[in-house]
Amino acid sequence: MNGYKNGYPCQTIKYEDVQNTVKYLRNRTTIRPVLAIICGSGLGGLANTLEDQEAFAYKDIPNFLVSTVPGHAGRLVFGRLGGKEVVCMQGRFHCYEGYPVARITLSVRVMIELGAKMLIVTNASGGLNSDYKVGDLMVMKDHINLPGLTGINPLIGSTDDRFGPRFVPLSDAYNKKYRDLAKEIAQELGMDYLKEGIYVFQSGPCFETVTECCLFRMLGADVTGMSSVPEVIVARQMGVDVLGISLVTNKCIRTYDAVEVANHEEVLETGRMRAKDMERFVAKIAERVEFKG
Ligand SMILES: O=P(O)(O)O[C@@H]1C[C@H](O)[C@@H](CO)O1
């Protein structure tokens, strides 16, 4: 089913398309990833740290979209991190780029069909919790899917059992074992700026109004962002465990007479500032995670 549903762009992802993309990539790389990583705004430097890199521009990969956002390089990078074979999206796709939500998650399905047993999503976010500072990292404990509540969900459309069930539980969306591991590693690395909290997903591309920020905070969210949740939903449908790490790149404006405003440059700048810490952190996580079977 392609076209519009409830006024939103809608596209059903074909299992065969995913398999064709998997085949294309398998024929061109010897890396067999067990871990998939998605780099958020300004956090793509992580992909450059992989050993034995083999990279593909999104524009050359069948069925992939192209990245249109500064800070999202648009490359799928295979390699080794922390002794494990991994695949890394150096840049992601967002709903606000005009892509149907199911379409922006095709790459997640591909990475899982390639063999990934765990997904690490990283993202940039605006801090709502007044205890959070710019440069803090937050392990995602849960999310609020605002667009999902009004019909923007990557699982809307006809279903294919080969991807997993239609009715996906999300009460365990963010794996407790991985959250605990991340906190343990942060402590070992002396990262006293690691928090754990709730991410609220809004479609973007506008930054929030003051009243929206107040509403999100009332709902219990600690940070707000424009991505990750569709990717997490698809990974959970396919039975893959998720760890989410959000970098607080700016503080959300919560007073009506503030002179400063949010902007993408600041987001990228904070990403650059925390790049090395983030790389060290994710590499340690990659080294220490264990997979069954
Ligand atoms: O891809 P992420 O979620 O890290 O990017 C955030 C949300 C918007 O794309 C952008 C706003 O500056 O950064």
Overall description:
This protein is α/β, with parallel strands linked by helices. The protein is built from nine helices and eleven strands. Strand 5 and strand 6 form a beta hairpin. The radius of gyration is 18 Å and the shape is globular. 45% of the residues are buried.
Q: Count of helices?
A: 9
Beta-strand share of residues: 25-35%
Overall structural class, as computed from helix and strand content, comes to: alpha/beta
Radius of gyration from the alpha-carbon trace, in angstroms: 18 Å
Describe the main β-sheet briefly: 5 strands, mixed, barrel
| Side-by-side strand order of the widest sheet | 7-10-9-8-11
Mean pLDDT: 94
Silhouette: globular
- Helix coverage percent: 25-40%
Total strands: the figure is 11
Q: Give the N-terminus to C-terminus distance in angstroms.
A: 36 Å
Uncertain runs with pLDDT below 50, 5 residues or more? none
Q: Give the distinct bound molecules.
A: the ligand O=P(O)(O)O[C@@H]1C[C@H](O)[C@@H](CO)O1
Helix-strand string: EEHEHEEEHHEEHHEHEHEH
Function: The purine nucleoside phosphorylases catalyze the phosphorolytic breakdown of the N-glycosidic bond in the beta-(deoxy)ribonucleoside molecules, with the formation of the corresponding free purine bases and pentose-1-phosphate.
Protein name: Purine nucleoside phosphorylase
Subunit structure: Homotrimer.
Family: Belongs to the PNP/MTAP phosphorylase family.
